[in-house]
Amino acid sequence: MPVPKRRTSKTRKRKRRSHLALTPVQTVVCKQCGRATLPHAVCSNCGHYRGREVLTIEEE
């Protein structure tokens, strides 16, 4: 079975893995309450999506 002749350097390894970094989660601001939410999702705070109420949120 073939074995590498030389050790892979840190630079070569890091260049190869440069695109594997994690990206932060994208958020948008809700137009009704101003809370950060995921895009294309109903706001969990006020229940609005694209300017209209989709869910009725019960206040405790």
Structural features, described:
- The protein has one helix at residues 10-16; strands spanning 28-29, 36-37, 48-49, 52-53.
- A hairpin with a 6-residue loop joins strand 1 (28-29) and strand 2.
- Helices cover 12% and strands 13% of the residues.
- It has 60 residues and is of the alpha+beta class.
- The strands form two sheets. A two-stranded antiparallel ribbon has the order 1-2. Strands 3-4 form a two-stranded antiparallel ribbon.
Number of strands: 4
**What's the SSE pattern?**
HEEEE
Question: What form results from the Cα inertia axes?
Answer: rod-shaped
Helix content: 10-25%
Q: How confident is the prediction overall: mean pLDDT?
A: 90
Q: From the alpha-carbon coordinates, what is the Rg to the nearest angstrom?
A: 23 Å
Strand proportion, as a percent range, falls in 5-15%
Number of helices: 1
Measure the end-to-end span: 66 Å
- Helix and strand content put the structural class at alpha+beta
Q: Which blocks of ≥5 consecutive residues have pLDDT under 50?
A: none
How would you write the strand order of the largest sheet?
A: 1-2
How is the main sheet built?
2 strands, antiparallel
